[in-house]
Amino acid sequence: MSPFEPTDVSEDSAAVADDAALVRDSARPGRLQGALFQSIGDAGRAELVERRLAGAITGGHLRAGERLPSEYDLARTFGVAPTTVRESLLALRSRGLVVTRRGRNGGSFVTESADPVAHARTALAGTSRLALRDLGAHYSAITAACVRLAARRAVPSEVQQVRSRLNRLDASDLEQWRSTLDDVQIELVSLSQSARLTREQMRLQAEMSPMLRLIDADETSRSAQYAQLLSVVDAVEAGDDHAAVAATERMVDAAIDVLINLQSRTH
Asked: CATH code for 39-114?
């Protein structure tokens, strides 16, 4: 399912089908973008559309120069009126995140100056240590619940698909590093076969991802992240739910510690 595929939140049956597809297709990349572009559902909520799109841009999931879908397609995706999308794009233009071009090849594009790392640094600087710990605790609890179920329910071939994606990761390609780790994380938790938990983990992944990009800049921290996520995959493949939970908690605690350390350097 495309990140921009329209969804009709008024139909329960469609929502159930989407949940089933989310759990069933564990090998497909791009789930983080899927979380960012879920339908909002309430017309007139321009600020929510703006927040969702801004998060995708500042999180690096919509890259500099990338063209956004048309206003009509965005309206269908988010479940809002086209005028609501137009209003949100106007706000994004005023923030310097989006530029609109006219003509045959026109449309709304992410500005070249939209730097996700700079935005992540600003977000980190404006977040208290207590808030960071709280975010980490929430993320850890939800992710641990997912991997516990994944260890109990996933079949080896499903986990091997996730491992294969992780094994192909190129540590020298920082552009792809974070998006690939995010996708691997979400593909892994989707093996829990719990659509509700997976959706919540996707939401938290989108919130955490911009700040995790700051960790990626350090080679030692980057290698540690890879090893920690691999240990979660190992535990899930072995069907060891206790080890999967413990590895997840260690991975999240380590990430939060690094973020707090980074934060202290800038103060």
From this structure: 1.10.10.10
